Amino acid sequence: MFNPEKFVNRKIKELQEDIKGKAIIACSGGVDSTVAAVLVYRAIGKRLLTVFVDTGLMRKNERQRVEKVFKKMGLNYGIVDASQEFLGALKGIIEPEQKRKIIGAKFIEVFERIAENFGAEYLVQGTIAPDWIESGGGLRETIKSHHNVGGLPENMNLKLVEPLRDLYKDEVRKIATYFDLETKERQPFPGPGLAIRILGEVTEERLKIVREANAIVEEEVERAYPFEERPWQYFAVLLPIRSVGVHGDKRAYGYTIAIRMVESLDGMTAAYFKAGHVVLEQIASRITTEIKDVNRVVYDITNKPPATIEWE
Q1: Residues 39-54 as b or e (16 or more Cβ within 10 Å = b)
Q2: How far is CA 232 from CA 29, 116, 303, in A?
Q3: What is the pTM for the complete model shown?
Q4: Which of these, 271, 253, 254, 275, lies nearest to 262 by C-alpha position?
């Protein structure tokens, strides 16, 4: 049985021994990176700089929400807007593995600049077991490269620290509960962000569509289900196809949004969530009414395996 208090006490001692200088961590505001940030902050205090990089690939209003969390936790933090850098690097890219590796490499590029200014020698990441297992290496087949694994350059100047590397999502949530973090109730969000919820090229237009659709899915699921009954993860995916529809009395040729909801314990396997038809109808109605470029919504009923949770 995993004991979060014992893990935290042991890991703080290890981190105090291992981190001799300053460190930085990329914190998205999700469970993994927030737990890692608080854990390392408890070990080395203000020698840790917690940085939120606005990649332009985040959920709706995420930057404002994350800054509020950082202030409440009393962290030494910074906010960096690198959205145009990320979007520029992704221009013309459609292959999922390329997207993930470009995003990972761009993160490191941005962070090495920040680290140099801060005088940091260490890079802390909220990597957990499924990240490196699915990223492959050695005898393991690559399922999908996680940005914090597959995108790391071999000649990186910073020393890597991954305090949650051997944990699974359910164990990280127990630590979040032990720390009494608001993020303990947040659903997982992928490091590469909305880039892997857009099949095909990432553009500002497509980001706007999937960001709004994703916000509608979250709002309606959280309105319909109390926390203990919600799916483990729920989100929208923008498909690279258009189909004929009707808006008012006119022909429309719009995008298709896929809704994905799954139940899982640690993310290694998952079952599709048996969402109620009333909830699905409300989500579809809002998406097609509020987002003019979308005229069709479908529901993904595939388990993992054979599918992964994210579409890319």
Answers
A1: bbbbbbeebbbbbbbe
A2: 17, 38, 13
A3: 0.83
A4: 271
Contact by Cβ (8 Å): 291, 206 = no
In the structure, what pLDDT confidence band is assigned to residue 73 with cuts at 50, 70 and 90? confident
For 189, the token pair is: 């969000």
57 vs 35, 61, 124, 194, 229, CA distance in Å? 21, 11, 21, 5, 28
Q: Which tokens belong to 117?
A: 């200014």
What are the DSSP E strand ranges found in 27-115? Answer: 48-54, 77-81
Amino acid letter, 215: A
- Distance from chain centroid for Cα 124: 16
Question: Distance between CA atoms of 15 and 234, rounded to whole angstroms?
Answer: 34
Tell me: the pLDDT tens digits for 158-214?
Answer: 899 999 999 998 899 999 999 988 777 788 888 899 999 999 999 999 999 999 999
Q: Which two tokens stand for residue 107?
A: 């993160």
Contact 189, 30 (CB under 8 A): yes
Q: What are 80's two structure tokens?
A: 């960096």
Q: Alpha-carbon distance 115 to 108, whole Å?
A: 10
Q: Please state, in angstroms and as integers, the Cα–Cα distance from residue 52 to each residue in 69, 75, 129, 163, 241, following that order.
A: 11, 12, 22, 19, 33
Query: Strand 233-247 relative to strand 250-263: parallel, antiparallel, unpaired?
Result: antiparallel
Q: Is 109 within 8 Å of 26 (Cβ atoms)?
A: no
